[in-house]
Amino acid sequence: MNTWKQFPEKVLVLGLARSGTAAANVLLESGKDVTVNDAAASYEDVPVLALQEKGARLVLGSHPLSVLEGIEMVVKNPGIRYDHPVVAEAQKRSIPVITEVELVAYITEQPIIGITGSNGKTTTTTLVTEMLEKSDCKVKLAGNIGIAATEVAQTMQADEKVVMELSSFQLQGINTFRPSTAVLLNIYEAHLDYHGDLESYVRAKCNIFKNQHADDYLVYNADDPTLEEKVKGTKAKNIAFSATKNLYHTGAWADDTHVYFFDEAIIPLEDIVLVGKHNLENILAAVAAAKLNGATNEGIQHVLKTFSGVKHRLEFVGLLHGRYVYNDSKATNILATQKALDSFKKDIVLLAGGLDRGNEFDELIPHLHHVKAMVVFGETAPKLERVGKEAGIQVIEHAAGVDDAAKTGFSLADEGDILLLSPACASWDQYKTFEERGDIFVQAVHTMK
C-alpha cells in the first residue's frame, strides 16, 4: 500500500460533485494542502463550506490558470476532459493529473474487484456484489455506480472486499491503483469525444490491469478479439469467459443447457431470469469474478434465479395495455442498443435519440429487423431517421422528448409488441443524466396506465 508521505503536499481538486468532494475530504484529513476549483459550485453550498472549514482554499465560479500556482498534483473529476484549459496547462507544466480512484491505493490494502467495459459494467458489478453477499462474504460497492471509492475505502474492515465499477474516465487517471481481480467485459468504440481516438480509449480501459501482480486475476472476454490481444502482456492470472467457446480448462462458459466455471456446472440456463446474449456474457464474467473471490454455487444460483436487471438497463417497466415496456435509458452508445434489440424476437417500437457526438448510426441497421416503427428525439433525431429509412422502416415519428416519445410509441405499438426506450446516445442534450431520462420515461408510462 502507498503511504500519504509519498503523496505530494499541494493538491488541486478540480471539479467537485461526489467524487471531487470525497477526494478533497480524504486529502484534507491526510494533512494535505488542498485547493478546490469548481465553476458551478457556490460559496453557500453546505459541502463546499464544510471543505473550507477543514482548511481547503476555494476558487469557485471560473477556472483561472492561477489555481495551478505551487500545485504538485491535480485530482480531477472524471467527467472533466483532458483538453480542459486547467488540465491541459497542468500537463504542459508536467504536473501529474489523476482521478479520485487512484487515492484508494493510499487508503486500503483490502481486495478490490474492479469491473470495466464499454457495456455491462453496472449489471456485472451488481451481480458480483449480490453473489458474494448471498455467499456470506463481506463486501462493499463503490465507484462509477454512484458511490465514491474513497468514501467506501475509508470504512472498510479487515475481512471485507470492495466491488468497483470503473469507467474509462476514471481509469485514464490512475498511476498505482491495483485491483486484485480485474474484469474487462468488452471494448467498443465509445467516448471518442472524450478520449480523442479509439487507441486512447482502449489504453484507458486496459489500465485496469496495468499494475496487477502475478497473484492477481484478470477476467476477460475471450470473444472480444481486441481483448484477446491486449491481455497477452498482463502479469496476472488470465481467466477467460465466453458465450460461444468451451472453456473447460480456462474459465467461465455456457453451452445450450448450463453455465459452467471450468468443468463445474453452476446453473441451468433455464433457471436464469435475465434475458439476452449480452446478459449471458455479463453473467459469465460475474460468475468467474465471484467464484474467484469465495462465492458459493448456492449464492450464485440464488442471485441468477431472482435478479431481473438493474434500473435503466433493459428494465422491464411492465405491461401497458398489452404492450411490453422496457426502459433501457442506460444504452448511451450504439453497442448497448444493438444488444437490446437483439434480446427480443417480437415486433419492437424503438424510441431513440440524444446527444450528437458526431458519429453515425449505420451499425444499427442489421439489428433493426424486428423494429416495426421508430420514435426519434434529441440532437440525433435526423441521423436516426435516416438509418431507420435505410433499414426499410416505414413509420418514423419525431418527439420532443422521452415523455412525448412514450405516448407516440404507445400509439404505434399493438398488443404483444415491445415498446423499447434504448437511445443509443448520451442524454446531455436534454437531460442531466440517463437516470433522469429513464425516470421521465417510466413516469410517462405509469401516467398512461
From TrEMBL:
Which InterPro entries does the annotation name?
Answer: Mur-like_cat_sf, Mur_ligase_C, Mur_ligase_C_dom_sf, Mur_ligase_cen, MurD
Q: Name one cellular component (GO) term.
A: cytoplasm
Look up the record and give one Gene Ontology term from the biological process aspect: cell wall organization
Q: Name one Pfam family in it.
A: Mur_ligase_C
User: What range(s) does the Mur ligase C-terminal domain occupy?
Assistant: 312-425
Q: Which family does it belong to?
A: Belongs to the MurCDEF family.
User: What biological function has been recorded for the protein in this entry?
Assistant: Cell wall formation. Catalyzes the addition of glutamate to the nucleotide precursor UDP-N-acetylmuramoyl-L-alanine (UMA).
Write the protein's name: UDP-N-acetylmuramoylalanine--D-glutamate ligase
Q: Which organism's genome codes for this protein?
A: Oceanobacillus oncorhynchi
**High-level lineage:** Bacteria, Bacillati, Bacillota, Bacilli, Bacillales
